[in-house]
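Please predict the structure of the following assembly.
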Amino acid sequence: MARLEDDMIPPEARSRKPEDGVARPPSLVARYLGIYGALWKTSVTREMSFKGNFILWIVVELLWFAMQLCFIGVLYLHTNSIGTWTQWQVVLLVGASSFIQQTYQAFFLVNCTNLSELVRTGKMDFLLMLPMNTRFLVSLRQVDLGAFVNAAFAAVVMFYAAGRLHLHPTAAQFFGFLALCLVGILIHYSLMFMLAAISFWTVRAQGIVWGYYNLFNIARMPDEAFRGVFKAVFTFVLPVLLVSNVPTRVLADKLQSPILWLVLLGMGVVCALISEWFWRVSVRRYTSAST
Amino acid sequence: MKKYWHVVGIGIQNNLTYRVNYLTRTLFSFIPLFAMLSLWRTIYAGQGGAISGYTMAQMISYYLLVAVVDVLTAVNEDDWQIAADIREGNISQFLLKPVDYLWFRLGLFFSGRIAFMAVALVPLTVFIACFGHYFVLPVNGTACLAFLVSLVLTALLQFFISYAMAMLAFWVLEVSTFIFILFAFEYIASGHMFPLDVLPPMLKHALFFTPFPYQMYFPVSIYMGKIAGADLWQGLFIQAGWVLLAYAFARFMWNRGVRHYGAFGG
């Protein structure tokens, strides 16, 4: 974490005279919030300059979401349950999975995929020199506004599925669900950021997005479909099977024991720590491409 | 004709430089494939008996065959590259030289498939070997031969459709959204996601009026002997028809596009 020094304050912040006349640097949180606000502003401007494209991307994502729901519909023409999961429970799961993925996408995905480009072109130089935490800047530079729209659609589907299941979640269940969704987003971000940081090693890392989509493909599948090594790997090494299954279980009264959400929480912390470590090791390997 | 074989040769060399990329692609694609197989196994375990005429072994071999056909025929990055060529003005040289851009790209497409196949062969064989007892050989010689013919037609159909789609780059800046929208339809309607037999019969029947089933479901079904006899020949005939139609459409789009073309940066 870059420590805040007087000479690290951006010029506009320095020139702004506080009312009480004492030159006092803004707090760390306020400073980063200010920077993030500015990043939002440029993202909105950028997105709005290609309105047609903005809407088309929303359509693309919606189409793929609808397709997954169709798949569930087709499966349940032939069976009443997958393990103990009923049709509307799986719809709730697919909804939760999409909600988590889209929210993550809104904040992080573009930035993670851009990382390899920054390394390849040597633009990382510029970002490394800025007086702020580089990971913060690299991770949050752009906001994908369309993904919020798609997250909202996923939420609507979840509400509908919850209605069909006659669920009446308690406040604890509801907020527990939201908190676990946050952990899910953290896991998405940590894993993807690690995948993206591989580009410090190989430079050409176009397959990253491809790998990511394949990996998180299984997050929307009911966990009971898996057994053995596969389940162990995708629970304790790459915990994608926990990401949306556990929150959905909390919401749908399917949680047999609290161990599951503790495991999710623990894996979230572990992933975040490993990803930070990997990022630091990777940046150390950075040799500028332009010079 | 000779010059296009040359393109294939160079293309293979170029593509093989991305072998690590291809290898990771193949390995990563096993994750959702394996997940899908597990999902169906769980459904069969709770169900007992066949689903829409598929036993569990047949269902698994269906997905394994889809993976094989996909490696052999899917358009990988060709549409993106074609769109980039148009956007960046690289096609100008093809308007001047006696090289036809469509045949040139087709040569590159085949070389890409050959290179991908060479890299994917080992991991795919290992994966299939793990499910060895579910993997069936073609039911008879006719099916085997018809499968190979259908496979070539599938590859051509995939390519011409993608080529026509990429031609949109003459008019719009970003074609990836259109490509993804088409891909979504292809993915579900071609039988990539599930065999079309599990759909309600009406829906399946309706889909056969589109080219989509001929992009995946048709060759796999021939292999598995689900389509045989008169249906087989009729199907091959229709598939060839779609290929010709897609070819004509690709040509049409190119001709319209070139008229609209401003040779930016060319």
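Residues 1-19 of chain A have pLDDT under 50 and may be disordered. Residues 87-121 of chain A form the longest helix (35 residues).
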